[in-house]
TrEMBL record:
GO terms for biological process: DNA metabolic process. Pfam families: RecT. This is Recombinase RecT. It comes from Microvirga mediterraneensis. Residues 236-321 are annotated as: Disordered. One of its GO terms (molecular function) is DNA binding. InterPro entries: RecT_fam (IPR018330), ssDNA_annealing_RecT (IPR004590).
Amino acid sequence: MAGTAVATTKPVNPVVALIEKRKSDIAALLPMAVPSERFIKTFKATIQRQPELLDCDPQSVLDSVTKAAQDGLIIDGREAAIVKFNSTKKVRNEHGQYVDKIVKTAQYIPMRNGLIKRIRNTGEVSTLDQTIVYQQELDEGRFEWQAGDDGFIRHNPIYDRDPGKPVLVYSIARLRDGSISRCVMRKDQVLKIKARSRSSNSGPWVTDEEEMWKKTCLRRHSKDLPMDADLRRIFDSEDYDPPATIDAKAEPVEETKTEPAKPARKKAGAAAAALNNEPPHDPKTGEILDADFSEPAAEEGSQEDQTTDPDEGNSPDDDVI
């Protein structure tokens, strides 16, 4: 008697299952300019390129995808990226003792091209670019920078030979009114910011460090650029968030699921509520609210010609990415 073949179904990864389940909610958070099919398709391609994300806490991946959707950035490594890092959590073992357990967590990172896209979409900035200055260029007098009322930057890059290691990075923006804004950062300033980032030893800081130099300068420069409240929120709530620790005296926990992060944009609509597993409500009074997808009011920015001094008006934690 011939044997009968038994069909087997490969189990669906929890990360893939959760994203698929929440796909319509994620799509509802996207701006109209970003097609939902393209957003989801690009994320799935990212999962194929970075299979290590499948080992991350599913909720942390959902939180990362949600933030990218709210920011209107495609997760393609150019506009936005998701990286894996290990965090430590206190859990109680079978003997009732607290022990450290490593939890693989996903982290959303807005990338420079995505931030520039959002800035240009405001219509207030005509051109915006960041450039690195290398040691040989500095030694040969190929870079000049003067701050003040008559400030300028002159840079003659080396293209035909090794220019050496990066020593400076600068950003230049031409505003809609024709004025020019500049920002210059030294190597030590960039490395201090890198050291405070929890993704300093993984992701773009390792694979694309020079790109992260440029992004670091862009973020500091953004303080002097005109942008609306929603774009300012993206810069202010960037991808640095010190790993959470749980005091050993805290209540025992039996599992390692991370708490879902609150969406960065305050949306009280059905999509945001579904992602947080709760109805839209007033955070102070607890009153249930009607759906509201209104955008935050825009803020006016300065459009004066200006050059940002590397050490002026920046607290140590301002620019951490």
